[in-house]
Amino acid sequence: MLHPEQVKEMIQSVAPCEFIEVEGDGHHFFARIVSPAFEGLNRLARHRLIKDGLAEKLASNELHALSISMAATPAEWEKAGKA
Questions:
Q1: Count of CB atoms situated within 10 Å of the CB of 55
Q2: Pairing between strand 19-24 and 28-34?
Q3: Residues 10, 24, 78, 46, CA torsion sign
Q4: 74 burial class (0-12, 13-18, 19+ CB within 10 angstroms)?
Q5: Among 43, 53, 67, which residue's Cα sits nearest to residue 9?
Q6: CB hemisphere CA count around 50 (13 angstroms)
């Protein structure tokens, strides 16, 4: 069973992140991600970037389910007052 910290490390291996928050029960995880890698990408492309990078883990069911509730650029994050 995975822990949220392990999922955070997996995401960071896919894209450089300024902020990641992962919550989950060991099977289903929810992530909020802020990354400069999202610059110029629409919402779907941002999610695909992460999911494609984790495709092997998802396909093997090592990572059962990952929902990305937020995928923002650093500028969007700052504009929202979160920085």
A1: 13
A2: antiparallel
A3: positive
A4: middle
A5: 53
A6: 33
Please name the amino acid found at residue 6: Q
Asked whether the CA dihedral 82, 74, 25, 44 is positive or negative, the reply is positive
Give per-residue pLDDT as tens, 55-80: 999 999 999 999 999 999 999 999 98
Predicted confidence (pLDDT) per residue in 28-54, tens digit: 999 999 999 999 999 999 999 999 999
- Dig out the tokens for 57 from the structure: 């883990």
Three-state DSSP class for residue 18: coil
